[in-house]
C-alpha cells in the first residue's frame, strides 16, 4: 500500500521521493499517509504550503478518497471501504497462505540449529538456537525457499575419551539408563576433579579417544550407546517444542571425511606450521584458523569446514545459515574466510546468525557444575503454571492438558522471539505467562477470543463493506501490512518482526472489540465477522511462524 501511494505521489511530484519521505500520521484526522513538503522548498523556490497545495490538487487515484494540504503537509486519506473490502476478501480467500510468496524461487537454505552436545545438558543457548532457527526455517518456507534443518550434534572430540575412561572406572550401566545425561555429566566432572590429583588420567583419556577414532569396537559401542541415550532425552524436548529436523549429521559424521579437505588445503598451499600445529593464516585482523593439532588431532573448525563443503555438495544451497550464540562469531568468521581463501565464492552465502544469552536475575543461566538448569524442568514448570491458570479461569474447558502445553510452551517461545535475537533476554516464567502485556498467552488469548465471537456470529457469509470506523480501520491497516512483515522478517532473519507485528494486531483487535458492539449490530455483522475471521487467520499464521500453537478455546 505504502509503495503504491508513493508511486501515485511520485507521478505528480516535481522531485524524486524516497520511501521514508512518506509518513504515517499518529492521528486519524491527519490521514493515513502524510507527505511533508518542507524539504522541497529550497529546490523549488516556493513555500512548502504552496507546494503541498499543488501536489494535493493533482492527486487522483481510486484508492485515495481525498488529499488535503495542511501546514505544508499533504495529508492523504485512503478510500477505506474499497481497501477494506479488497483486504478482507483476500485474507478470507487465501487463508493461511495470505502473506506467502515465491520470493525464494525454491532455492535451498540450510539451517544449522539446536546442535546440542551429547552427554551434556541441553542448555538455554541450545533452546534459543532451536527456537530461533525453527522460526527462521518457517519464515523461509513461507517466502518460497526450501528450508533444510540440520541438527549438527556435538558428538565428537577429545572429551569423549575422558568420558569413556570415567565410565569404565566409576560408572554403572544402571545409572546411565536411569538418568543418562545427569550421570554422564557427573562422571565427566569427576574425571576433571580426579585428573587434577592424578594427571595420568589425561593420558588414559587421550588413549581412549584415539581408540575411538581408530574404530575400536568396545569404545565405539559405548560411545554409540551414550549418544542414543542422550538423543532420546533431547527428543522429549523437541517433541514438546514441536520441532523436527531433516538431518542429524553432526561432528562424528565428518570424522572420516576431513582428510581430503586437509589435503586440499595443503595443495592450495594454505597450511602453515605454527608451534607444531597446522593453521591457515588469516592476516593481521583475525587469529589463524587451527586445522590440525601437533598430535595430529583435528578440531571443531576442521569439522565445520568439511561440513560446510558437504552441505554445498549435497544441497547446493543458495544460503547457509548457522544459528549459534554470539560467542562463536570468531569461529564462523574463520571458517568462512578459510573457504574464501580456498576459492569458494559460495562462502559469501554463509551467514552466522548470532544471539545473546538468557539471563536469570541478570546472570547467565549456567549448565556448568552444580548449577544445572535442566531445560525440561523449565518447560514442565511453564506447562504446570499454565495448567493452574486455566483450571482457575476456565474450569470447564475440555482439553485442558493440551491447551496448557500450547500456552506454557508458547509463553517461552514468544518471550524469546519478541526481542531482537542479538539482545540478552531475561528469563522469568511468571511474566512470560501473563495474559496481559506482550506475551505469548496474550496473543493466544486474543485469537481464542476471536474464535469465540465467530462461534457466536455463525459462519462468515458474503459481505459488503459500507463504512469503516477508526477501530476497524486500524485493524485493516495492520492486516494489510502482514505480507510486508513476513518479507522483512525473512530478509533480516529476524522473527521478532513477526512477534511485534502480532502484538500490534492483537492490540488493535482488542481495542476494536472493546469499543464496537459486534454481535448486537445485525446490519454490520457479516462484514465484522469477516474482519474477525481475518484477524484470527493472520494471528494464527503469525503464531505458526513463531513455532507456537493457537488453541481455539482457552
Ligand atoms: N555443539 C556446539 C555447541 O554446543 C554448537 C554447534 C553449532 N554448529 C556448528 N556448525 N558449529 O557449542
Automatic annotation (TrEMBL):
The keyword RNA-binding does not apply. InterPro entries: Arg-tRNA-ligase (IPR001278), Arg-tRNA-synth_N (IPR005148), Arg-tRNA-synth_N_sf (IPR036695), ArgRS_core (IPR035684), DALR_anticod-bd (IPR008909), Rossmann-like_a/b/a_fold (IPR014729), tRNAsynth_Ia_anticodon-bd (IPR009080). Signal peptide: none annotated. GO terms for molecular function: arginine-tRNA ligase activity. Its EC number is 6.1.1.19. It is found in: Cytoplasm. Residues 443-554 form the DALR anticodon binding domain. Residues 1-78 form the Arginyl tRNA synthetase N-terminal domain. A motif ('HIGH' region) lies at residues 116-126. It holds the Pfam family tRNA-synt_1d. It catalyses: tRNA(Arg) + L-arginine + ATP = L-arginyl-tRNA(Arg) + AMP + diphosphate. Keywords: Aminoacyl-tRNA synthetase, ATP-binding, Cytoplasm, Ligase, Nucleotide-binding, Protein biosynthesis. Belongs to the class-I aminoacyl-tRNA synthetase family. Monomer. This is Arginine--tRNA ligase. It comes from Sporosarcina quadrami. The gene is argS.
Amino acid at each position: 500500500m505504502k509503495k503504491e501511494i508513493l508511486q501515485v505521489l511520485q507521478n505528480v511530484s516535481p522531485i524524486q521521493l524516497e520511501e521514508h519521505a512518506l509518513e504515517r500520521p499518529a492521528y486519524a484526522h491527519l490521514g493515513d499517509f502524510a507527505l511533508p513538503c518542507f524539504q522541497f522548498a529550497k529546490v523549488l523556490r516556493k513555500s512548502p504550503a504552496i507546494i503541498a497545495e499543488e501536489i494535493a490538487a493533482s492527486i487522483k487515484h481510486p484508492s485515495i478518497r481525498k488529499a488535503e494540504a495542511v501546514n505544508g503537509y499533504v495529508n492523504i486519506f485512503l478510500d477505506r471501504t474499497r481497501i477494506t473490502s479488497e483486504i478482507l476478501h483476500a485474507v478470507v480467500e487465501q487463508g493461511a497462505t495470505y502473506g506467502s510468496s515465491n520470493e525464494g524461487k525454491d532455492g535451498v537454505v540450510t539451517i544449522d540449529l539446536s546442535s546440542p552436545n551429547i552427554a551434556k545438558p541441553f542448555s538455554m543457548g541450545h533452546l534459543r538456537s532451536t527456537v530461533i532457527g525453527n522460526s527462521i526455517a518457517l519464515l523461509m518456507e513461507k517466502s518460497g525457499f526450501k528450508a533444510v534443518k540440520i541438527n549438527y550434534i556435538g558428538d565428537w572430540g577429545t572429551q569423549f575419551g575422558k568420558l569413556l575412561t570415567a565410565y569404565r572406572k566409576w560408572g554403572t550401566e544402571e545409572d546411565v539408563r536411569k538418568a543418562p545425561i545427569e550421570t554422564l555429566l557427573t562422571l565427566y566432572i569427576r574425571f576433571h576433579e580426579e585428573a587434577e590429583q592424578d594427571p595420568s588420567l589425561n593420558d588414559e583419556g587421550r588413549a581412549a579417544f584415539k581408540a575411538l577414532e581408530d574404530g575400536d569396537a568396545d569404545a565405539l559401542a559405548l560411545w554409540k550407546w551414550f549418544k542414543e541415550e542422550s538423543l532420546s532425552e533431547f527428543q522429549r524436548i523437541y517433541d514438546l517444542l514441536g520441532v523436527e529436523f531433516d538431518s542429524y549429521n553432526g561432528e562424528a559424521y565428518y570424522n572420516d571425511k576431513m582428510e581430503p579437505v586437509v589435503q586440499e588445503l595443503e595443495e592450495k598451499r594454505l597450511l602453515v606450521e605454527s608451534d607444531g600445529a597446522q593453521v591457515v593464516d588469516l592476516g593481521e585482523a583475525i587469529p589463524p584458523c587451527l586445522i590440525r593439532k601437533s598430535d595430529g588431532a583435528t578440531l571443531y573448525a576442521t569439522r565445520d569446514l568439511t561440513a560446510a563443503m558437504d552441505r554445498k555438495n549435497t544441497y547446493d544451497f543458495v544460503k547457509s545459515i548457522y544459528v549459534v550464540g554470539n560467542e562463536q562469531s570468531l569461529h564462523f568468521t574463520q571458517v568462512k574466510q578459510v573457504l574464501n581463501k580456498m576459492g569458494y565464492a559460495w562462502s559469501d552465502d554463509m551467514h552466522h546468525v548470532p544471539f545473546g544469552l538468557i539471563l536469570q536475575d541478570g546472570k547467565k543461566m549456567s549448565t556448568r557444575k552444580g548449577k544445572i538448569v535442566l531445560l525440561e524442568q523449565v518447560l514442565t514448570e511453564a506447562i504446570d503454571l499454565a495448567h493452574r491458570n486455566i483450571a482457575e479461569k476456565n474450569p470447564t474447558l475440555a482439553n485442558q492438558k493440551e491447551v496448557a502445553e500450547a500456552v506454557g510452551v508458547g509463553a517461552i517461545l514468544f518471550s524469546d522471539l519478541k526481542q531482537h535475537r542479538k539482545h540478552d533476554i531475561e528469563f522469568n516464567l511468571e511474566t512470560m505467562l501473563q495474559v496481559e502485556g506482550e506475551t505469548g498467552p496474550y496473543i493466544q488469548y486474543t485469537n481464542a477470543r476471536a474464535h469465540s465471537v465467530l462461534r457466536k456470529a455463525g459462519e462468515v457469509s458474503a459481505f459488503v463493506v459500507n463504512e469503516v470506523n477508526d477501530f476497524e480501520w486500524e485493524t485493516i491497516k495492520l492486516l494489510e501490512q502482514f505480507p510486508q512483515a513476513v518479507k522483512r522478517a525473512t530478509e533480516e532473519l529476524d522473527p521478532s518482526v513477526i512477534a511485534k507485528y502480532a502484538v500490534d494486531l492483537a492490540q488493535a483487535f482488542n481495542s476494536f472489540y472493546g469499543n464496537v458492539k459486534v454481535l448486537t449490530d445485525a446490519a454490520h455483522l457479516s462484514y465484522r465477522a469477516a474482519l474477525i475471521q481475518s484477524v484470527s487467520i493472520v494471528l494464527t499464521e503469525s503464531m505458526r511462524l513463531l513455532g507456537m500453537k493457537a488453541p481455539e478455546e482457552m
